[in-house]
Amino acid sequence: MMKKINAMKLAMLGAAAVAAFAITGCGGSDNKAASKPAQAESPLMHKIKSSGKLVVGTASGYPPYEFVDTSAGEKKVIGIDMELAQKIADKLGVKLEVQDMNFQALLSSLTGGKVDMAIAGINPTDERKKSMDFSDNYLPTEQKVIIRKADADKFKKVEDLYGKTIGVQKSTTQEALAKDQIKDANIVGLAHVPEVVLELKQGKVDALVVEGIVGEQYVIFNNDLMFSDIKFLNAVKNSAAALPKGNEDVAAVVNQVIKENTDNGNFKKWTEEYSKKAVENADKK
Length: 285
Fold this sequence. Notes:
Blueprint: H1 2-24, H2 43-51, E1 53-58, E2 67-68, E3 77-78, H3 80-92, E4 95-100, H4 103-111, E5 117-118, H5 126-129, E6 133-134, E7 138-148, E8 165-169, H6 173-181, E9 186-190, H7 193-201, E10 207-211, H8 212-221, E11 225-227, E12 236-239, E13 242-243, H9 248-263, H10 266-283
Parallel strand pairs: 1-4, 1-5, 8-9, 8-10
Antiparallel strand pairs: 2-3, 6-13, 7-10, 7-11, 7-12
Helix pairs in contact: 1-8, 1-10, 3-9, 8-10
């Protein structure tokens, strides 16, 4: 019986991933940097090639972008972003080293030179662009609200959340969106999405603002949770790889990899694969 339930969950999640991808599409801007005349290697490119490795910072606990594979004997971070990181390392001809940390520390680790780039479903906001550069966009997705099913009639529009306690992952686009569009809300920011989901299930927050693709796992696996019909203004968020400023040759390689894996359908495939894997991991807990 459990196997049948799990199979149904995986089928639902696969369909959801396909639908989400079909609605938003996936693409980036033209790779203009790659057509520029050859220039001297940037400091970052020199560092990567001389060390023989690409150090990528990420923040697990954000499936299907990045999460820990509980089926593996050793802690291994997998997901859409880790596939992208590996493709970039392959294109550069170096090994991939992944450093996992909480999202709040991730961007400071990049600007502090502790990692070569950050790949973690990062939205390239204007504020972030002041201190770092970004690749072309990939995998746009809508920001949504998860609520308890018992509250389905209470929260149908943004105004219904005014003055309520809202859960978010700390230092994310979702936190900024909640603060900007949900008036008088008490924003509770925690390090990882699963922690916020638990707060929601225990009634400590009224709703959770989350990226749609990320939220699918929690809605499908937790029968007491659901997506609200609430819609935000400018709700579609793009992701991009973050790099230290002034390394256009490395950015050009990243943009080439993003375009290749958009055109060949890999982003769509990875979304389906790791959405299902995330549910399988949750079922084994």
